[in-house]
Amino acid sequence: MSSCTYDFIFITETWTNSDIPNSILRLNYYYDLLRDDRLDKRGGGVLIFFRKSLQIVNVEIPEGLKISETLAFDLILKHQKIRFLLVYRSPKCDEIQNDKLCNLLSWIYTSSIQSIVLGDFNYPLIRWNNTPISEQSPDFKFYTTICDLGYYQYVTHPTLKNNIRSHFCIE
Q1: CA pair distance 68, 60, nearest whole angstrom
Q2: Buried b / exposed e along 57-73 (16+ C-beta atoms within 10 A)
Q3: Which long-range contacts (C-beta less than 8 Å, at least 24 apart) are formed by 3-6?
Q4: What are phi and psi of 105, to 5 degrees?
Q5: How far is Cα 43 from Cα 37, in angstroms, rounded to an integer?
Q6: Residue 165, pLDDT above cutoff 60
Q7: CA 141 distance to own-chain centroid
Q8: What is the DSSP string of 85-101?
């Protein structure tokens, strides 16, 4: 990391908490960080390292759409703004949290700012190779939200060996 070749590093399942100060997590002089730790138990959390030379503006997510372990920011470029959203969704999320996530994705999409959504969403029944998903599946609403909004799934297979979790980046 000393050569500072990455503009961003996005991490889910950080397992960080309020007992771990930012000073321990800092990579080097060239990077700053944003984080959202899981508050109620171990695990989870999201973290973004970004090059200090970039102009980053934290985006306040409206209260009704806010879900834990989520960060949003705008990258300000010379003639453009790009909104980033990083999410970790626990596999144990309830239907209310699932609905909030879909509503958050819709809000990001309708913001008129180009958006990039990244994260670990833990919807194991979704197969991004056009395999039909049952309407009774708890994953169905998320899947249809992604498709209806025109987001694109870049990673179409599990990224961990012998693991069926869906890790992906969508734009």
Answers
A1: 13
A2: eeeebeeebebbbbbbb
A3: 4/28, 4/30, 4/31, 4/51, 6/49, 6/51
A4: -60, -40
A5: 9
A6: no
A7: 17
A8: EEEE--TT--HHHHHHH
Cβ-contact 100, 68 below 8 angstroms: no
- pLDDT tens string 21-80: 988 898 888 899 999 999 888 899 999 999 999 999 999 999 999 999 999 999 999 999
pLDDT class for 168, splitting at 50, 70, 90?
A: very low
Length of the chain: 171
CB 45 within 8 A of CB 13: yes
pLDDT tier for residue 86 given thresholds of 50, 70 and 90: very high
* Closest to 60 in 3D by CA, of 88, 32, 83, 90: 83
Instruction: Calculate the alpha carbon distances from 165 to 38, 124, 152 in Å.
Output: 19, 5, 18
Pairwise CA distance, residues 10 & 153, whole Å = 17
CA dist list (Å): 113 to 34, 107, 133: 20, 11, 30
Considering the entire predicted model, what is its pTM?
0.86
